[in-house]
Amino acid sequence: MSKVAEVFETLEYGPAPESAQFANEWLDKHGRAFGHFIGGNWTDPAVGVSFETANPATAEPIAKICQGTVEHVEAAVAAARVAQPGWWDLGSHARARYLYAIARKIQKHARLLAVLESMDNGKPIRESRDLDIPLVARHFYHHAGWAQLMEDELPDYEPLGVVGQIIPWNFPLLMLSWKIAPALATGNTLVLKPAEFTSLTALLFAELCQEVGLPDGVVNIVTGDGETGAALVDHPDIDKIAFTGSTDVGRIIREATAGSGKRISLELGGKSPFVIFEDADLDSVVEGVVDAIWFNQGQVCCAGSRILVQEGLAEALERKLRARMETLRMGDPLDKTVDMGAIVAPVQLERIESLVEQGRSEGAEVWQPSWSAPREGWFYPPTLCTNVAPSGTLAQIEVFGPVVVMMTFRTPSEAVALANDSRYGLAASIWSENINLALDVAPKIKAGTVWVNCTNLFDAASGFGGYRESGYGREGGEEGLLDYVRLAWEHGAPLAQEPTANAHQEQAPSDGTPAIDRTAKLYIGGKQSRPDGNYSLPVYAADGSSMGDVGRGNRKDVRNAVEAARKAQAGWAARSAHNRAQILYYFAENLEARRDELTGRLAALSGDAEGASTEFDTTIDRIFTYAAWADKWEGRVHNTPFRNVTLAMKEPIGVMGAVCPQAHPLLGFVSCVAPLIAVGNAVVAVPSGVGPLLATDLYQILDTSDVPGGVVNIVTGLRSEIVPTLASHDDVDGIWHFGGAEDARRTESASTGNMKRTWVSYGRARDWFDHEQGQGQEFLREATQVKNIWVPYGE
Amino acid sequence: MSSMKTTDSIARERAARYPATAGAVSPVDLHEGVRNPGMPLELDWIREIRVNRSAVERRAATLGTRRSVKKEWQAAWLLKAITLIDLTTLAGDDTPGRVRRLCAKARQPVRRDLLQALGMGDESVRAGAVCVYHAMVPTAVEALAGSDIPVAAVSTGFPHGLNPLPQRIAEIEASVAAGAKEIDIVVTRGHVLTGNWQALYDEVRAFRDACGEAHIKTILATGELAMLRNVHKASLVCMMAGADFVKTSTGKESVNATLPVGLTMARAVRAYAERTGYAIGFKPAGGIRTAKDALTWLILMKEELGTGWMQPNLFRFGVSSLLADIERQLEHHVTGRYSAPHRHPLA
Questions:
Q1: Domains of chain B as residue ranges with CATH
Q2: Could you give the CA distance from residue B165 to residue A27 in angstroms, rounded to a whole number?
Q3: What is the DSSP letter of A510?
Q4: What are B99-150's pLDDT values in tens digits?
Q5: Which of A113, A687, B191, B287 could form a disulfide with B200 if both were Cys (CB 3.0 to 4.6 A apart)?
């Protein structure tokens, strides 16, 4: 029987291999050994230590890659530093031309890049060909546009300088593009370290940069493992580290860079919920699960690895999923009929196997299709785990493999609670045909991206990034671009002269009737409360006379304040922006009524009556500014190339710590608290230690102005005693700290427990009276995070 | 690398265990070879149908990019596609001569020398049916005598379906009497658009009764049903009313067989099979012109319903020009040279 006649009967699929010929020719041309790309030149691959990169589908080595040393990193950073001013001076249009040329180059070599990616990473050629590489080109096109527009649209901004970028192995070239395109568009130069398992496409990319004539040193590629990455992170002449990878490594980077003044953006792990309501299109849900967890063998940071299904639907879904899993095809990644390729490396395969075994030992029912995965190479079959409790290992730990757990819920609110029962907050997927339900749930899930009736859609116009321990910063869209620039005034801002508290001077006792003693307490949950320790601290006027005492708060007071803020935050955020604006205006109105008293206080503290009056006026003005912004700090609709709306919503970060500047005790306090509450955060504020009474004077006014209890909490005391507790508190979502350089280091370092967002001043001076420096969009951006909600439409 | 196995051998074993359901359909006991008797109209089921257009379109768009058949596999699949073709002529200028020519092509759709070169027997490859208007049924029956190729007649006021009901029923009876073994009826789109499922059910039930032993294919005219949800619901109602096949289009609507519609109908067929155990056929019609299109539709069937649904009893292409492109591709497979239309006999 001929093969044709045989297949005519069986109707099976045959092999449909994509040729590796051109990729192999490219590798051979380089002798299958690669150096680093530094300052426009290639280092000699024969010099120094190198390691093998392997094809995960065959376990065979395909090329030798150099291990980058401290010296290589040094040379690359130096080359980038030299190139940076020239690259910025080229101007918007010239940079746009380069980025456009890179995008075109990628399209012209699309298949070579795709094949090489699949050989090095093990992902199916369909994905590298139809998803990864087209998205890479799209990212450079989109950012060619940003390069063109930067001079006109971001006139107050300048590049950060030299950026260090460290990318993972799951989407090697795509992650490279997410890092490089915005950096180049905004006039930065960079040193990028690809993951050691998957360096090849980054090296081919470097060749393409040479071909388009990109100036030497603008893009530098140093290959190597975590040690090379650490050398980059530690390099003193780096202005920003952009990292995508595990939360553990992200935490190390935060710790290592604490206090250095380096900006960091971290795109970390996830355990993303995939929420299915009973009115979803179940057949489409099944394909959604395929795209959520079996895309790229589940090695996707935003993989929908936790299925949460409404209880009545669970049985039908499980039946359909099992049937679908039987028809998935696993095998040679270069076969065009393959859904799932290989796991990137043995270490990853072992991790998946051991986590699944652990899940099984905890009682999970582990189901895999009847077909078996290929034996050669590193393969792991699609896996569905049921009978898993939220406390189970497989429900908590990021597997980074084709393993999904399925749990049930009863009501939408329970679905939200389960979805948010995670340290992570990268992405979520919601399936329902009821737009009321979907758009009610989407804002309630803590995640940077929410896909409604779809999953794993990406685009350069839409920012991608996490909440919680999934990191901070965005990649894509305007929100991502702004992570690569700073306001020009910040450049070279002088170090601040930290004011010190007035000292006590002996005063002659006054005769006559003394004033009634006033006791300033802490303000927690809308109530004045005595400090837990029941100690006080004295406050002195400029002339050394006593102005009174303030409570000496301790760690328990911080704990209580955070709890009060947590209780109040959701309700405050749910209020309309108009209502928050009204309350802020009312606050200004009531404050104005106590002008004489507060300017008197300020004058006594500083000994400068005129300055006190100016500070008071500016404070009122500032509150008006944020009352004005409250209903204008709004989101966008991104133009992503799908039939959908991508809603970029600006959401409050949540519970925020605000360590206010020591100088200007009234203006500094209001400049921190007003923007935070205007956009819906609840605040635990640590006021100026010099003039804490200016803050405690405000709590009566906050009460009078209908600010709900718990929205603003004030904890006075010694900063050394309360700020560490606040900065390390795992239920605080972010912290601002305007203080010295050492303060910045401590606070950034303390933030790593829950990877809270930080905004610190590194001891740099900020003119709080100046509108550009003391208020505005920078503050609002630091008070919010962007959530992108993708809503496809069409009936 | 090239020796690496994929998972097909396993799929084949599965196919042996569940003949009609190689994987895609949850294992159910299908009533093999038993005609769908229909069932009472179940409105609760109809009401709960949900189809997300965007999600269906995304799946449809990747069916042809997730799978590919090449070389011998492609030739075999294309030969199979020929056996699934309802070779169709539905034009106002049809004549007995034209219909006889079509029937000859149905008997011998591919040049004998090509079949030999492909290792296929002479008798193995012929069209699934010939599909004509009622007036041409006697000619077609006569021209196909002794071939086992059924004649299908479009009926019930095709393509609009708005003639008086007794007339539409009489039309079916006349075609059956003239020897048609398959009747392609059109439904009243208005019943779908107004959500009058009872009327749709009654109409199809009446047509089915009129068909007697002849198989009934219900044409939904999906291009006029506005929403995929309607397509799924109408498919289900037709199956409940006893349809043997559900068919997308008359070929006369401005939008005919599209993959999202096909995917929706295939899923309706699957849902019916899983609920009742009866396997219903599916026929996309109109707009399928290239060999590549045909392969994509076959991939859709294999992925969503399994290899059992790639046979003439459960799948047909309603096409007029597809065959010409398939013939050229087959010759290319045999000779390695790109072919030309005039090297293949006209229908």
A1: 40-343 (3.20.20.70)
A2: 72
A3: P
A4: 999 999 999 999 999 999 999 987 889 999 999 999 999 999 999 999 999 9
A5: B191
